[in-house]
């Protein structure tokens, strides 16, 4: 990929000045910058926790979907039939 258009800002007609990559949204939203975005998803909350002086946390992994009441009734009926 090329980001040359967004990476330079001419200050005069002769010398282009290179823009910092972290200011280049075309680059930051590109496939090439995916590792940076993933890393930032770790570092940003880490910084927030440190600023709040949070030392310990508990992380629980699991499904975000709970069965509907109808599904529970069906499973309950199936258990009764099988027993």
Walkthrough of the structure:
This protein is mainly alpha-helical and 83 residues long. The protein has one domain (4-63). The protein has 4 helices and 2 strands. A two-stranded antiparallel sheet has the order 1-2. A hairpin with a 5-residue loop joins strand 1 (8-10) and strand 2 (16-18). It is elongated. The termini are far apart. The model has no long low-confidence stretch (mean pLDDT 81).
Give the biggest beta sheet. Answer: 2 strands, antiparallel
Number of strands: 2
What Rg, in angstroms, do the CA atoms define?
26 Å
Write the element-wise H/E pattern from the N-terminal end onward. Answer: HEEHHH
Number of domains: 1
Which class best fits the helix and strand makeup?
mainly alpha
- C-alpha end-to-end distance: 62 Å
Helicity range of the residues? Answer: 40-55%
Residue fraction in strands: 5-15%
Largest beta sheet: strand ordering: 1-2
Q: Summarize model confidence as the mean pLDDT.
A: 81
Helix run count? 4
Q: Can you tell me the residue ranges where pLDDT is under 50 for at least 5 consecutive residues?
A: none
The 3D shape can be described as elongated
Protein topology:
Elements: H1 4-7, E1 8-10, E2 16-18, H2 25-28, H3 34-51, H4 69-82
Antiparallel strand pairs: 1-2
Question: Could you write a compact summary of the structure shown?
Answer:
This protein is mainly alpha-helical and 83 residues long.
